[in-house]
Amino acid sequence: MTNERFRHTALVLEGGGMRGVFTSGVLDWMTDHAITFPYLVGVSAGSSNALSFASHQRGRAKYTFADLQAERHYLGVRNLWHHRSIMDMDLLYRELPETLWPYDYEAYRTNPMRVESVATDCLTGEAVYLEEKEDAERIIDIVRASSSLPFACPVAYVDGRPMLDGGIADSIPLAHALEQGYGHAVVVLTRHRGYRKEEKPLRIPPFIYSRYPKLREALRTRGARYNAQLAWVEQLEEEGRITVIRPDHPVDVARIETDMGKMNALYHHGFEMAEKALL
């Protein structure tokens, strides 16, 4: 399959916690068909998926989401006692890329595709779009910040700035991708068409993120902003301006999921839906 079709197309990857294994299936199908893009922007789990796709390490993202969880149980409330985080961040962002499935930084560096990750600046409550190809430590810091779930993970730091999950400020960075000058986008979502979040403003105890009032405001209004993004995505899809790859039914996989049967099924569903959308 020629990449001429995608030469002016951006790839946008939503997050969704462990539902990101759907995106892993989509990207492995793309890898199998030698599909590449000039630009990719990922959020949270989408940012983690982006790394393995950009280094051409097929199967690595699926291993991270499903197989590694089955082996090491890196996700769960028991981690709060040992790691002060619902995820074992040292396993994910040190042991995994260094020894368990070493990350191919050279393949990533030489890939001409631009790769951006979205994080939320805790001081401003706004999205920041970060990219790095040379500094291995900063690459990992960026993905870690993009994936640091609010309330469940410690605040992360990139270039000395406190940051959290990019989905707080920009869950579906399609507008940012189109602003880069691309005429079309392939958007990978991890929820079915028509899904909407509850829009009731989130009540946050005053002692949580008290140093970051703008972050608190972004968290309170996240549901309404996300729903507006979903409606816009559906509008552009109907107009033929973007291609959307999403599950074709409600997903029975939680943001924090431990059922490997569900995880593997969702991975294969991503493979199926990519073929349906792009062939």
What key attributes describe this structure?
279 residues; alpha/beta; 8-stranded mixed beta sheet; 11 helices
Question: Could you walk me through the main structural features you see in this protein, from its secondary elements to its overall organization?
Answer:
This protein is an alpha/beta fold and 279 residues long. 43% of the residues lie in helices and 14% in strands. The chain has helices at 20-32, 45-54, 60-72, 79-83, 89-100, 105-110, 136-146, 174-179, 213-220, 222-238, 260-278, and strands spanning 9-13, 39-43, 114-121, 127-130, 156-158, 161-165, 184-188, 242-245. Strands 1, 2, 3, 4, 5, 6, 7 and 8 form an eight-stranded mixed sheet that branches. Helix 1 packs parallel to helix 2 (45-54) and helix 1 (20-32) packs across helix 3. It is globular.
Strand content: 5-15%
Determine the mean pLDDT: 93
Task: Give the SSE order as H and E letters.
Answer: EHEHHHHHEEHEEHEHHEH
SS element count, helices: 11
Poorly predicted residue ranges: none
Oligomer: single chain
Instruction: Bin the helical content.
Output: 40-55%
Whole-number radius of gyration?
A: 17 Å
Shape: globular
Topology diagram in text:
Elements: E1 9-13, H1 20-32, E2 39-43, H2 45-54, H3 60-72, H4 79-83, H5 89-100, H6 105-110, E3 114-121, E4 127-130, H7 136-146, E5 156-158, E6 161-165, H8 174-179, E7 184-188, H9 213-220, H10 222-238, E8 242-245, H11 260-278
Parallel strand pairs: 1-2, 1-7, 2-3, 7-8
Antiparallel strand pairs: 3-4, 3-6, 5-6
Helix pairs in contact: 1-2, 1-3, 1-11, 3-11
